[in-house]
Specification:
mainly alpha; globular; binds zinc ion
Amino acid sequence: MEISKFQEMMRQLYFHRDSERGVAGTYDWFVDETKELGEALGSKDKKALEEEFADVLAWLASLANVTNVNLEEAAISKYPDRCPKCRQKPCKCTF
Ligand SMILES: [Zn+2]
């Protein structure tokens, strides 16, 4: 499934609720799910880890829907098959 199709599926499933909750409320949920992903990173439960990744992606898509951002276009625009800073693939930036 492409990113845009996933975002559209999330729109069909949840936009009526996401739009009522609004940007700030949806962002709070996204942050909570990201914290849960952080906790799952320390676990050996692979299934739980996968579910937390799914939740973070789902809430990111919901947040993009309520802010009218096309995730796929935004991602490909910033990361067009090369690093946006050094413009290399793979990245050769020094840290
Ligand atoms: Zn780079």
